[in-house]
């Protein structure tokens, strides 16, 4: 019940207790009624008492409104414009869904970060993968950003947004091997800012947004856990980062130097710990996956020399993606007519992954090209057996037998 009605019975027996409850409820500092006056005099004072109570309620309402209307959402609108502009620029010069384009323009790409490109943690929060990704994040930024900036003011909001994005990006670096981009870490940091407000103003928080906000946070995190493509590490990391970033600047007119310093130290320790942990790969055993994704894109765009360079470097410590890296390199070698190198890679792929139909098919094409028809037919038949629904495999086998 959001607006309960309370009754105070001023009978002779309970007058003192009920008056105290009344004063406490409305935070009245001094009694408005002399306990010794008559009932007639008390009735005469009722308009005055009513006026005082109404005035107190109006003052409390103005105080609440001043909390929620402290600032104006100027930076929110600026960030919306910046994100949309960058998205349109990326679409103009390339493709926002292309891994190659995303990496080129600053997406979170773990191998590059480990080579010293730490700036990607910051730039990735301004890139988006396709229109739907942009729309969902900008929709959330508009509503959350407006609320948080009005609550905290522009500079506190900007601080929280940027530090949340950095924290979420570092959490993604530590936990997620995939190429990643988006403002979601920073946006979840705004949830963290609202949760910090709840810690500071519990009654007001639960009287206004409390349970609705908590429900939305739970739904978003649960959805992220159920859908593998969602970078939940960035989401949860951003929310934690937003909480501590807000604790550093605190609510307007609520300074507490010691608590602010403690929050800042905790933030630095956590983000530094994630950087070290991510670099060591303690929670991320997917080494080589990013290079597989990137070189697939590069093969499609015809950058075969770059494919060979990237895969050769990655194959120095290939991990569990050795077969995929070798396959991508063999494709580049085939396109450059370096059949000997391509054959060596494909044979190694089939040692590691005998059931890779695509490797059998490419090896069949290679043997056909060099005139070894019998070997070509064997591998074409194997490819067709593994994947009978692929017409190209069956047609090649029919032509060779």
What does this structure look like?
73% of the residues lie in helices and 0% in strands. It has 21 helices and no strands. Helix 18 packs antiparallel against helix 19.
What's a concise summary of this model?
By secondary structure, this protein is mainly alpha-helical.
Cα end-to-end separation: 80 Å
Largest sheet: none
What are the secondary-structure elements, in order, as H or E? HHHHHHHHHHHHHHHHHHHHH
What's the alpha carbon Rg, rounded to whole Å? Answer: 32 Å
CATH superfamily of the largest domain: Rhomboid-like
User: How many H/I helical runs?
Assistant: 21
CATH topology of the largest domain: Rhomboid-like fold
Q: What structural class do you assign from the helix and strand content?
A: mainly alpha
Low-confidence stretches: none
CATH architecture of the largest domain: Up-down Bundle
Number of domains: 3
| Shape descriptor | elongated
Q: What's the β-strand tally?
A: 0
In helices, the fraction of residues equals: over 70%
Strand content: under 5%
CATH class of the largest domain: Mainly Alpha
Mean pLDDT: 84
Keywords: Hydrolase, Membrane, Protease, Repeat, TPR repeat, Transmembrane, Transmembrane helix
TPR repeats: 323-356, 357-390
Membrane topology: Multi-pass membrane protein
Main location: membrane
